Amino acid sequence: MMEHAGWISLIPALSVLVFALITRRTLESLIFGSLIGFILLEQQSFFPAFVNSSLGVMGDPTIGWLILVILLFGGLISLLVKSGGALAFGNFVSSKIKSKKGALFITWLMGIVIFIDDYLNVLTVSTSMQKITDKFKTSREFLAYVVDSTAAPVCVLVPLSTWAVYVSGLFESNEVAAAGMGGAAFLQVIPFIFYGWVALIVVLLAILGVIPKLGPMKKAEIRAEELGICVPEGSGNTSLGNDEVAASIEQGDGSSGKTKPKIYNFLIPIIVLIGYTWYAEIDLLQGVMVAVAVTLVMLMVQRLMKVSELFDSLLEGFRPMIYPLGIVVASFILVDANEQLGLTAFVIETVEPLMSASMLPVVAFVSMGLVAFATGSFWGVYAVTLPIIIPLAGALDANMWLSLGAVISAGAFGSHACPYGDATVLSATGAGIDTMTHVITQMPYVLLSGGIAALGYLVLGIMM
Questions:
Q1: Where are the transmembrane segments (predicted)?
Q2: What is the mean pLDDT of the chain?
């Protein structure tokens, strides 16, 4: 039996959510919740424990990987904008798109096509489509929702994404599949990953107007359509692009007045980014490093900017990524506090009496979805939960693939809904709004998708 602190283990996550709703500040809320967690763990010695956890997180290879990936993405995007490549791409796409629905549909489609990794997805799509959707008076809130809905929900449905590779490895280590057969097992689970399918369809129906604008999103869309204000006032616009350059999409002029913007200065780096990430066995860090190097060489050869200007532009791209990086690092500190308090173990122990063959899928989805939402640990939920759900499904004679699909759906739901989840933060950053604005406006759609997925697990759990 895993150890936990009982109901007390819920306090840090609840503190973060309450503080974030009151202040609408994500980073500060995470720090506050983490401090509460270490106060509960260590009492008077909470601050040294908090510092040690912070140092441990900063020394984690995963965090180092994230820092490099996110900073280099910011630098790459800055180079694409300053070179005029992003402008040329915007001109080209704008000439083909004739309506708001068309712009949003292309955004949705790009989110599906760039399926390899959720970071690659949200940062590429949001910054590529930002000014194009502005042209058709789409709120940045709705753009962020479309981008976020095609991140983790798409990655869990594609057997060649980073998410799928990770889960396939867990299938093998937990003996659901033989060595080397984890991918084949994942293929059997895909039809049962209901949240991914539902979230993808719900956002498409919202784009087409079949599902109306709901709650805060309705207000945001009215503001954009009637007043032409796409970026919410006071949201702390964190746009990664150069607004003066990108705004010229509508005029179709050059990026510097010297040469006409060339679309290949956008397309080649993006193709290199995706292609090398794939070649390097889905290592996004290698992909973005090579893409930055190729972009620098291309711009040097064309003499679009001096060498000093190129590297200044690269460094300028780091700046808007500092705040989202702070959120990601702080979320890992909160995860450490939650793990020491045994939050996941407490939830599993609490819901275990509710488990039966028919109820296992829906209980697994709802409970683990809430854990992922509260902790911001999505892959961590998989690592902790699958060793419990797999033997439990076997003992109860529950449908194994349906039960596994429920757990994978729970992680995708958490990534989509969590206010301090990495994909949530980066979707907001790429769309140029603050994180809490994004979370609040997309929440009705996330809850709708989650409710439909839960109903699916309940019905099929009984039928299968």
A1: 30-51, 63-82, 102-121, 186-211, 263-279, 285-305, 317-335, 355-374, 381-402, 445-463
A2: 84
Four-residue CA torsion sign, 202, 203, 204, 205: positive
Distance CA 392, CA 363 (A): 12
- Ordered by start, the domain boundaries in the chain are 6-60+332-463, 62-322
In this predicted structure, what is the pLDDT of residue 234?
A: 65
Residue 126's pLDDT band, with cuts at 50, 70 and 90, is: confident
Contact 230, 140 (CB under 8 A): yes
Give dist(CA 246, CA 88) in Å, integer: 10
Confidence band for 61, pLDDT divided at 50, 70 and 90: confident
Tokens of 460: 């099929």
CA distances for 381 relative to 114, 344, 369, 410, 422, angstroms: 25, 8, 9, 9, 15
8 A C-beta contact, residue 4 and residue 343: yes
Sign of CA dihedral 131, 136, 140, 145: negative
- Res. 242 pLDDT band, cuts 50 70 90: very low
| Spacing of C-alpha 211 from chain mean position | 23
pLDDT tens figures, 364-420: 899 889 888 877 777 777 877 787 788 888 888 889 999 999 999 999 998 899 888
Instruction: Give yes or no for a contact between 434 and 428, defined as CB atoms under 8 angstroms apart.
Output: yes
Condensed to tens digits (0 to 9), the pLDDT of residues 247-281 reads 433 333 444 445 678 889 988 998 898 888 888 87
Residue 17, Cα to own-chain centre: how many angstroms?
18
CB 213 within 8 A of CB 206: yes
Mean pLDDT within 75-101: 82
CA distances from 448 to 29, 107, 264, 331 (A): 26, 21, 40, 26
Torsion on CA atoms 352, 154, 268, 80, rounded to nearest 10: -70
Instruction: State the angle between helix axes of 400-417 and 435-463 in degrees (0 to 180), rounded to the nearest 10.
Output: 170
Which of 169, 105, 174, 173 has its CA nearest to residue 136? Answer: 105
Angle at 67 (CA atoms; ends 63, 73), nearest 5 degrees: 140
In angstroms, the Cα distances linking 240 to 70, 82, 137, 320, 327 are 12, 11, 19, 6, 17
